[in-house]
Amino acid sequence: METRVAIISIVVENLENIEKLNQILHNNSQYILGRMGIPYPKRGISLISVTMDAPADKISAMTGKIGMLEGITSKALYAKLQEGRGEKTH
Known about the structure:
Blueprint: E1 4-12, H1 18-27, E2 32-40, E3 45-54, H2 56-67, E4 72-78
């Protein structure tokens, strides 16, 4: 199955839903390469960056579920990789 490399940007404005967000991320952990969270108490938000290598439909489904959480927004940015680029062939 073809996969895509993407970075998901997440802005958390409602900390009450952070447990639901973490559950969504946990459910997709097999596709997550890395995650970085930055709390920004001055503004009362948290910023999260998640790097994934997954089928496009899995990335879209995950960002959609995250976006449905009240006070949390997400966007995906996809790498423009050519097919087979960076994959080992032996």
